[in-house]
Amino acid sequence: MKKYLFILCIILTACKYKNGFNILDCSCPHATICLQPYGSFTEQEVKRFLPTLKKNMEKYLSGGEWSFEIRKPLPVPIKPVVGRKHKASDFLDIQQEEQTDNNQVIVGLTHEDLCHDIHGVKNYGIIGLSYLDEGVAIVSDKRLKNKSAVWKVIIHEFCHAFLGLNHCPNDDPTCMLVDAHKHKDFAIQNRLCESCRLQ
């Protein structure tokens, strides 16, 4: 299969690779997604949603090769900054110190409440954060009404952290890259819109 993909890449003159990945181009990127549980988030919980994550990575991000690694849970490495909220960027800074591989994305997973200074609000509650093109992300299911939708947040943050994609420019509530600030209905997020596929 890889041989045929490689031949197709040569034939298509539009084929290009960039560290922000045009899903419609033949860019054939590869990444290992390292799922790092923190605190009370268990390996068993990761194993439960992993098949759904794998299936949907293939569905929404076809053209790439994604492998997965589940790491041993670690204690929550930071203290809350206000109430019970933890600064998401503090998680990312710690992960960035161990990030040495451009083809790896470390996705932290926690049940803790996360916050970030965004939307003009200090310590605004969020469900995920990543550094664009830096291969690190943190995801919390604390604010998710449907905990099984955590795979959508992981794909959203992966698109930022590895593919370098920005939030949906159309603010399309059905697009998985829409900013969650105004669009919290994950049930209707069932695609990447055309604009996001061409970023």
Task: Describe the protein's architecture and organization.
With 199 residues, the chain is α/β, with parallel strands linked by helices. Helix content is 28%, strand content 23%. It has five helices and eight strands. The protein has helices at residues 2-11, 43-60, 88-98, 150-161, 194-197; strands spanning 30-37, 65-70, 85-87, 104-110, 113-118, 121-126, 128-131, 136-140. The strands form two sheets. The chain has a five-stranded mixed sheet, with helices on both faces. The chain has a three-stranded mixed sheet with strand order 3-5-6. Strand 7 and strand 8 form a beta hairpin. Helix 2 crosses helix 4 (150-161). It is globular, with a radius of gyration of 17 Å. The two termini are 26 Å apart. The relative contact order is 0.15.
Task: Please give the structural blueprint.
Layout lengths: L1 H10 L18 E8 L5 H18 L4 E6 L14 E3 H11 L5 E7 L2 E6 L2 E6 L1 E4 L4 E5 L9 H12 L32 H4 L2
Parallel strand pairs: 1-2, 1-4, 3-5, 4-8
Antiparallel strand pairs: 5-6, 7-8
Helix pairs in contact: 2-4
